[in-house]
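Dear H.,

Thanks for agreeing to be a second pair of eyes. The structure we're designing against is below in token form, covering all 124 positions.
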């Protein structure tokens, strides 16, 4: 019977992302539907333990994990998420990335045709 020793797993260092994102959420308007959380592939969004002024648990963003993919803003039914994406210089610190010095701003605005043109609505 031949036995083989398992070699220790090699741990590769975590690569610094070239593209980073920053998510801003209007927590006073968030209903906590968690659609954005399920759309986030980086698991950068979590549901809070506290409630907002409307009584909903709201979404909290961990911007250290965000890549600025905008999936969260695209699926938000209330369009309360703004995503900022940047390609920082090598020597730039994470604290230096603010909405004022970011090169690119992405905001998804989703409108419903039913609200734009009320002539197509049926009344009961």
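And this is the sequence the design step returned. I haven't edited it by hand at all.
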């Amino acid at each position: 019977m031949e036995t083989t020793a398992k070699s220790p797993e090699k741990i590769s260092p975590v690569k610094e992302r070239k593209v980073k994102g920053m998510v801003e959420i209007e927590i006073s308007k968030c209903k906590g539907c968690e659609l954005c959380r399920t759309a986030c592939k980086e698991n950068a969004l979590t549901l809070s333990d506290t409630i907002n002024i409307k009584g909903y648990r709201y979404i909290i963003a961990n911007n250290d994990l965000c890549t600025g993919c905008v999936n969260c803003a695209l699926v938000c039914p209330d369009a309360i998420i703004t995503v900022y994406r940047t390609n920082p210089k090598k020597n730039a610190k994470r604290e230096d990335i603010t909405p004022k010095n970011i090169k690119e701003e992405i905001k998804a605005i989703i409108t419903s045709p039913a609200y734009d043109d009320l002539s197509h609505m049926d009344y009961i």
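Two observations from my side: The longest strand covers residues 45-51. Strands lie at 20-25, 45-51, 57-61, 81-86, 104-107.

Warmly,
E.
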